[in-house]
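Summary of Year 1 activities. Much of the first year was spent building the evaluation harness for sequence design. The harness presents a backbone, in tokenized form, and records the residue chosen at every position. We chose the following record to illustrate the format because it has been used consistently in internal testing since the harness was completed.
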């Protein structure tokens, strides 16, 4: 069974940075495309970024393009989301998932809370 465990969230001031991690188990990690999403209580879960199985050109939602960077380490079964120039509107619970394009394909993990506030 696939398990996804996100970490790295926290409280950060506007303009700051965080790096999120997601460790996946129960699958041959290198064979799958991975993505990051976020959700607030007011909004549906939003796709942010995706990266193909072999780390080919990543793709981003325009809302985070230029500020967030997705990467992966297949040896560690881990996908990362580097978040820079954070804004209060980036406050959300962040999740990773296996994706087809922008569509998640597996059950969600517990997510990691990111709060951007002064």
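For this record, the design step produced the sequence shown next.
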């Amino acid at each position: 069974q696939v398990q996804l465990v996100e970490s790295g969230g926290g409280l950060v001031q506007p303009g700051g940075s965080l790096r999120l991690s997601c460790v996946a188990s129960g699958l041959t990690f290198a064979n799958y495309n991975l993505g990051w999403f976020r959700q607030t209580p007011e909004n549906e879960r939003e796709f942010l970024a995706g990266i193909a199985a072999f780390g080919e050109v990543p793709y981003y939602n325009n809302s985070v393009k230029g500020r967030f960077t997705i990467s992966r380490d297949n040896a560690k079964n881990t996908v990362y989301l580097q978040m820079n120039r954070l804004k209060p509107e980036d406050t959300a619970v962040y999740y990773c998932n296996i994706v087809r394009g922008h569509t998640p394909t597996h059950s969600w993990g517990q997510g990691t809370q990111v709060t951007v506030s002064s």
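The mean pLDDT is 94. Quantitative recovery figures across the full test set are reported in Table 2.
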